[in-house]
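Hi there, hope your week has been kind to you so far. Thanks so much in advance, here it is.
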Amino acid sequence: MEKLTHQEEEAMRFIWEIGPCIIKEVLARYDEPRPPYTTVASVINKLKSKGYLKAKKIGNTYQYTPTIAKEEYTQKSVGNLVKNYFANSYKDMVSYFAKEQKISKEDLETIISLIEEDEKR
């Protein structure tokens, strides 16, 4: 699937939270000052053209539903991040965050525990 812009990702996060929705429901999720209705409508139409949403006509409006789960999008996005910035090495990514002090020792211990638990299964 085509990569999303920051605006498109923000709208998709709202839509994943809401579920099937109309543009006004998405617009209501934005902080003040909210973008214009037409801007949100354009973003949603772009998401539809990229294949992230499907539309169903209900009366004189459209209801939009995600065609990709948030988890699937996250998995692909993180995979692309690791591939493009860390030479496909999750170890290098974690090392980067540790060196930049973006991840604590406690966080790393939690990650190790999760890995150990998963290996027991």
